[in-house]
Amino acid sequence: MDKGKGTVVQSERLRDQIYRLIRQQLRLGAVVPGERLKEVSLAKKLGVSRTPIREALFQLASDGLLVEADRGYMLPIHTVEEIVDRLEIRKLLEPEIIRRACAEATPKQIKALVKAVEEEKKYIDVVDPGKFIGAHAHFREMLLSTCKNRLLARSAELYDDQYQSFRIWGLQDPKNRKLTATSHEKICNAIKSNKPNDADKTFQQLISKVEDLLEDYQKDIEQ
After folding, report:
1. CA 95 to centroid of chain Cα atoms
2. Which residues 6+ apart lie within 8 Å of 88 measured at CB?
3. What are the Cα distances from residue 100, in Å, to 6, 32, 114, 161, 213?
4. Residue 188 CB contacts under 8 Å (≥ 6 apart), including other chains
5. Residue 86's CB: how many other CB atoms inside 10 A?
6. Does the residue 7 lie in any domain?
7. Are 200 and 95 in contact (CB under 8 A)?
8. Which alpha helices (H) appear in the chain, and where do they start and end?
9. Containing structural domain, residue 63
10. In this structure, are residues 66 and 76 in contact, taking their beta carbons and an 8 Å threshold?
11. Is 153 found in the same domain as 88?
12. What is the per-residue DSSP string for 142-198?
């Protein structure tokens, strides 16, 4: 082969495409806690063989996003202890991401954050909580995209997706949806104004309210 001639273009593996697709569905609340995902039905739905489905589900389980259940996988129903662990990680990582957003977010990114918050506010009182969950996922994606440290952003993204079953539970209540959207709007305004202390204060208040929900969550999962 002559130097400088010819390139190899490696297309994304089917397994990775399916992994991303299922992960996005989990993030959007399209799969509820306890719902089983089976190779056969997913393969039929997506028009692929079972092998890439199996590989994608295995990777999602390895990442802590699914657990094995009855010849398939499901979105886990986390214990309070597991939620507390994830909140601890969130309290370590997210303030730094928000602080960086205040200093580094571009006008285009800030505009996307504002738009995401407006979407959340539209769906506070709708009957289907899935619409708000989808808007919430978009806000989270926009916030993490402002972080120039991609390793930090990917770490936050992983714990965030592991938190999904508790998030789905909490966002069934319009009061919690309103609290979330209001908090996100305040954080967004602080980012626009480059006021990291204000953003951090709002974040800490939001986490405190989330922690107050844990007792009710415990009662629900024990029923």
Report:
1. 16
2. none
3. 41, 33, 17, 21, 28
4. 110, 113, 114, 117
5. 17
6. no
7. yes
8. 14-27, 39-46, 50-62, 80-104, 107-122, 129-145, 150-162, 164-170, 174-192, 196-212, 214-222
9. 14-74
10. yes
11. yes
12. HHHHT-S-HHHHHHHHHHHHHTHHHHHHHTTSHHHHHHHHHHHHHHHHHHHTT-HHH
Q: Let me know if residue 64 belongs to a domain.
A: yes
Render pLDDT for 111-144 as a digit per residue (tens, 0 to 9): 999 999 999 999 999 999 999 999 999 999 999 9
Q: Are residues 100 and 171 in the same domain?
A: yes
Last residue of a domain, one of 74, 105, 124: 74
Lowest model confidence (mean pLDDT) among 9-23, 140-154, 195-209: 9-23
Same domain, 119 and 209: yes
Question: Which two three-digit tokens encode residue 50?
Answer: 């079972």
Return the closest-CA partner of residue 22 out of 48, 60, 50.
60
Same domain, 156 and 187: yes
For residue 33, give both structure tokens: 């806690």
- From the list 113, 67, 106, 93, the residue with the least C-alpha distance to 158 is 93
The percent of residues in the chain predicted with pLDDT above 70, rounded, is 95
The length of the chain, given as a count of residues: 223
pLDDT at 184 over 90: yes
Residue 99 CB-half CA count within 13 A:
11
- Asked if residue 123 belongs to a domain, the reply is yes
Residues 137 and 47 in one domain: no
The predicted structure's pLDDT at residue 70: 79
Residues 118, 204 within the same domain: yes
